[in-house]
Amino acid sequence: MYHHGDMRYLILFALLYLCYYVLKKAVLPVLRTYRQFRRYHKSSALADKELVQDPHCQTYIPKETALRATIDGELYYFCSQKCLEEFKKASDVQD
C-alpha cells in the first residue's frame, strides 16, 4: 500500500504547508504593518518640510535640498544643475 518513501513525502509536504501557514498568518501581517508604518512616517516627514518651486521645470522640492542661485539679485531654487543652467540660459536670452 504505502512505501516508506511515500510517507516521507507526505510528512515533508505537511511540514512545508505548516511552515507556509505560519508564515502567512504570523509573519506577513507584521511585515505589512511595518511597511505601512514606514511609508506613513516617510510621507509625514516630507509633509513637514518647506517646499519651493523650481522656476524652470515647475517641480516642487524640499527647500533644504534645493540648489540655490542668485540671478539678477533674486534668489531662485532649483531641483538640479541642469534646470539651473537652462534657466540661466533663458534669462540671458531675455536680457
Shape: rod-shaped
Q: Name the poorly predicted regions.
A: none
Task: Give the fraction of residues assigned to helices.
Answer: 55-70%
User: SSE order in H/E notation?
Assistant: HEEEEH
Tell me the span between the first and last alpha carbons.
95 Å
Strand content: 15-25%
What structural category arises from helix and sheet content? alpha+beta
* Alpha-carbon Rg, integer: 29 Å
Q: How many DSSP helices?
A: 2
Reported for the largest beta sheet, the result is: 2 strands, antiparallel
Overall residue-averaged pLDDT value = 82
Number of domain units: 2
Q: What strand line-up does the widest sheet have?
A: 1-2
Number of strand segments:
4
What does this structure look like?
With 95 residues, this protein is α+β, with helices and mostly antiparallel strands. Strands 1-2 form a two-stranded antiparallel sheet.
